[in-house]
Amino acid sequence: MAHSPTPHDKFTFGLWTVGNRGRDPFGDFVRPPLDPVTAVHRLAELGAWGINFHDNDLVPIDATPAERDRIVRDFRHALDSTGMTCPMATTNLFTDPVFKDGAFTSHDPRVRAYALQKTMHAMDLGVELGARTYVFWGGREGAEVDAAKDPVEAIKRFRDAIDFLCEYALDQKYALRFALEAKPNEPRGDIYFPTTASYLALIPTLAHPEMVGVNPEVAHEHMAGLNVFHAVAQAIEAGKLFHIDLNDQKPGRFDQDLRFASESMKPLFFLVKLLEESGYDGPRHFDAHAYRTEDQEGVWDFALGCMRSYLILKEKAQQFCQHAGIQALLAEIRDTGDTGDVGPYTRERANELKAQTVDRAALTRRRLPYERLDQLVIELLLGV
Amino acid sequence: MAHSPTPHDKFTFGLWTVGNRGRDPFGDFVRPPLDPVTAVHRLAELGAWGINFHDNDLVPIDATPAERDRIVRDFRHALDSTGMTCPMATTNLFTDPVFKDGAFTSHDPRVRAYALQKTMHAMDLGVELGARTYVFWGGREGAEVDAAKDPVEAIKRFRDAIDFLCEYALDQKYALRFALEAKPNEPRGDIYFPTTASYLALIPTLAHPEMVGVNPEVAHEHMAGLNVFHAVAQAIEAGKLFHIDLNDQKPGRFDQDLRFASESMKPLFFLVKLLEESGYDGPRHFDAHAYRTEDQEGVWDFALGCMRSYLILKEKAQQFCQHAGIQALLAEIRDTGDTGDVGPYTRERANELKAQTVDRAALTRRRLPYERLDQLVIELLLGV
Amino acid sequence: MAHSPTPHDKFTFGLWTVGNRGRDPFGDFVRPPLDPVTAVHRLAELGAWGINFHDNDLVPIDATPAERDRIVRDFRHALDSTGMTCPMATTNLFTDPVFKDGAFTSHDPRVRAYALQKTMHAMDLGVELGARTYVFWGGREGAEVDAAKDPVEAIKRFRDAIDFLCEYALDQKYALRFALEAKPNEPRGDIYFPTTASYLALIPTLAHPEMVGVNPEVAHEHMAGLNVFHAVAQAIEAGKLFHIDLNDQKPGRFDQDLRFASESMKPLFFLVKLLEESGYDGPRHFDAHAYRTEDQEGVWDFALGCMRSYLILKEKAQQFCQHAGIQALLAEIRDTGDTGDVGPYTRERANELKAQTVDRAALTRRRLPYERLDQLVIELLLGV
Amino acid sequence: MAHSPTPHDKFTFGLWTVGNRGRDPFGDFVRPPLDPVTAVHRLAELGAWGINFHDNDLVPIDATPAERDRIVRDFRHALDSTGMTCPMATTNLFTDPVFKDGAFTSHDPRVRAYALQKTMHAMDLGVELGARTYVFWGGREGAEVDAAKDPVEAIKRFRDAIDFLCEYALDQKYALRFALEAKPNEPRGDIYFPTTASYLALIPTLAHPEMVGVNPEVAHEHMAGLNVFHAVAQAIEAGKLFHIDLNDQKPGRFDQDLRFASESMKPLFFLVKLLEESGYDGPRHFDAHAYRTEDQEGVWDFALGCMRSYLILKEKAQQFCQHAGIQALLAEIRDTGDTGDVGPYTRERANELKAQTVDRAALTRRRLPYERLDQLVIELLLGV
After folding, report:
1. Which of A246, A292, B191, C248 has the most CB atoms lying inside 10 A of its own CB?
2. Do A205 and B341 touch (CB under 8 A)?
3. pTM, entire model
4. Which of C55, C57, C101, C287 is catalytic?
5. For A2-54, what is each residue's pLDDT tens digit?
């Protein structure tokens, strides 16, 4: 059947996404807890490839070692029996009150030490279950009160933590890459490293930059009104797209984590096209959740919808490349009749350039039929 | 007189700021052209240190060599006779229709070549007048139609241009540093490198990263709802704060370029405090303009207001450091009673950390009196 | 041909939309002036029904009576020879510097008087050319400096102006209805009556509320991140949708006036569906303009694209009503198995209600398959 | 002591504000439950005048009648013994899962009936404790999926509910006025009646418009980037400011409910000035909560800070009126040298106006020294 997901598509979900129980700042849970084993089975039936988790999505923070072992055994058994993978893991450094003012950037060295401890244990757990990518989302690394915390010091503390954990991974011979995930605000008034680019700027300053990339999230860039297609393009150009969080969001409001492509069809069409054409071969991870109005069955509708919309947009990306009208316009736009680029600097080239006479009006007259092109894209998306 | 600016304060304005004539998308000019020589004299009288320009703020794009020479001679004479400096210059790569789809990122290699030509001439002009910092704001480097332009290619083209121009500066033995200025949108639907962090991420990939830093602008970060204090802190931590554009802006709307600190007293207090305490010794540049309701005299009210507000906030930054209540709270917040940091990774340290028993509830109980601290800051700002 | 506009579709454009010359705050004109007569002919050829104007779109503000008469004669001849209508007119109360601090809300009674004068003349002109709807967009009725203007007084002044002009229309026996158009900001820092609802709240307080309705604009509601479908629904529920401005806009940024449905396919699908199903039979007016990258031919691509997208969404609205899966879900959602509503208040009904035992958990269990429904809508839109 | 609150200032807090336990979408409770009796005593000690509540802030949703009676008796005793008032009450129609898709606008008539039942009981409780204002915040009256709910029908359902409840209040001879509170989004994707103006537009269509006004909330207008001073001014002009929710918020993000005036000193200065000068004599209600980083003692810091900042801004509003420089500028701005207004419409007046010759350039030349005025306001606020 058309647009039916298969493991070949590499779709993954977080345990916390299908397991979201619908609590929000103004309302209580509406759905019962979802057993991780059930999640694995249902996602496998829908055609997903894998499932990811925060340590405490799987193992409660106060579980005994015996409980932990039982849970992990059952979960692994579910993975094995369904063929599902667990390609990514991450640490919950935000739910427990101990992290109320940050984890790696806390003022309190004991909290920072605990955050490292918790992350090392969670890395062990992730690797044990097969994870190759380890995500860091610093949900509490921020401030409401800028008098209280030095943002320069916060950057240094965060760097120290990542450097420490890279060493740990290397020392343990874990085949892990780190992917840093940005968000501008919520739950903190402002979060440090608010955009994907903030992490791209940090990475070259790390002790092991080659191990560390980014995990852009659609909703998080949209919250700041930024163009997520451009943000992911910069990550790809830098060789740093190590993971991606797909969902949707209306700009300029609370973090919605909506079903993929349920709001932003056009931007996400370009994002899917970019992912598919870039050679990115990592998971297509959905970090979203069902509306609070849904019951548990609606969660599976939600999950299927995410995957279907990705596949539909992927198909349209192929159509874009085969669409005669679009390709003709692109050829016209790109064909400037010129012989080529300036090339690298030489003094002669510079002098030559400086001496050129330029007919600005003539250059301006070249047509750029972008309205027509964009309308063809809209009609391609609308299936006309 | 208190809060009266002097050249010692290093305040600078752009010719385009005090020369802004009040045209907007819905209305015509309301103020006559301002002669650059007059601008120099009036700003000098007000206590400014310097004046900056785009090439065409000073020399019209179609000026003859003779006109150029006369204008430059008169301008230099004004600088000399007032003691004003010209510490920064930049290129107008956005007004002329030839740049309607970008300058360095245009599809058309002839436009890209012209943009290099224009920039080299403008660098010559800037250096001739004393500029030590060269700003790049790529106002047209963006898109409304993502089908039309490849954002990965756009990054490469922009990098090529900056690399070329670094070589040019080196070859000319210009003592110039480049400062890249980001903006999320307007006039383009989306501008590439939308935030300061996007440029911080680009710089390490340049051929001459040591020559290139950033020029954060308050309004441009605010447009995306980001915390400009955090953005500038990241630039400082990276050693890349080469220039700064001070103004103001309400978030989530058109680019307002309001008088410094006329909207965002608290965030800009922290920004001023950071600049003053960081050792930044470059210009305090105001990139703003008077309301369209003002006549030319109002422009000087506007300029004076920018400088006064900076000095008032600077004074409050000093008071913050001497405020017993604030300092006592900060000491309490920072004193965790702990002996120190985790330190660099060793296997022993990791094992020790992993084996620690942590009393999360005890750590959580430590007070963080941020409401009280923030209220003291508010009352400091309100002069209570 | 499918989705080809005809006059039957009642599509209209403003002279200022197809005549937009591409100037923006950072760049000069890119397109030559467009002759109104040419605009009429080209729009007629594309299938439009009508053309609207601000007084000075047609007649320059300083035209002599003879010039005015010649322009009007030529324009009327173009209308007559093409069968185009002119259903709406409006006043330009924002371009000229005299209106820099408002028109009807200016502090200066002479400016307020001039604004009335200009509007009466423009109403005469509009009626002469057939207009039945008169739009008021108070682009300069706002403030950057809230110390300077009393917003309560501004409301009273605006009301006085509308009351005066209603009387004028009645006295002249003009068959005109007024439509008030809101915008949150730009060009002013804040504009009074920032949303459609603000005008809906004003109307009942006017002397002639029956003559006055609203002209919601998609982009203006989107600028504030509001749901334009909900805003128009409130106008319809109040019987006050007298006109509509169709275009598109990304939220939280400058006023973009993009081609209809080029960004917000899903919200505008619901808007088109609402318009078509509500019995609204006024013009489908496009208040948008071509990208600045376009030449004049691209303007006609833009105009055709607006109309085609409307017709495509209209067709999809019909498909929605015939879509078995969607309709089945809607039936399930609406069928609560209950016999009816509470009805009007009686003491008995209230007592009965208060005494009822309610099984909250049972009510909560009723399924609301909104994820599935929304995904069907997405797939309908994507033409799957 | 200066800026110390007293009951004379009419400051009120919600039980839910000081009782907020710091849970957010990403984190658990950090503070223990606060006993309502303790809340009354602590607020009284701080100088507050009253305390407000949602029904379930005081009486748990599943309390037995005996529990209810005991709780109410204890609470009333606390009020009596402290002299605290309870001027406002409201209904929690959002926490329980039964309201997941709305209360008064739910598809399910049984949910709508239950919402009426719950509100009548809560009105009884509020009146029993002295409330004179009854607030309606329809936190769940909205949608994520516009296919699922008809916004026109939603308005009618909401109107029916308010009409029913007005009749109930009248029938019970309750001396209650209703105050409707708007919010654009969160927890719903979009909430119906997103702004204060939306409710101002609804009220004239109600059966008992004289009983119903609005309860504007600072944060809720700021979320949409609107000017709350203008919004409250429109409510005052309409005679509909029945209550007000004071807090603070950065625009374009999640609902922050920050300490009053901790972010937006200038807009809230104008708001306080307006309230004080308008004759508004209702409660100054704080609908905010302490940062999640605070412990319970910090909550009282937070509460005191809200009140102090209000009093400081109130004092500055008085200084504004006595500030010679500001008043001189205002006099200059308002003195247009003109003899008066156009006055009501007469045919003669219209003809006279139409025939006037206007010197636009002369009118434009009149100075509007808004930069200077605004700078004086900034310096007044900064205590210079």
Report:
1. A246
2. no
3. 0.98
4. C57
5. 899 999 999 999 999 999 999 999 999 999 999 999 999 999 999 999 999 99
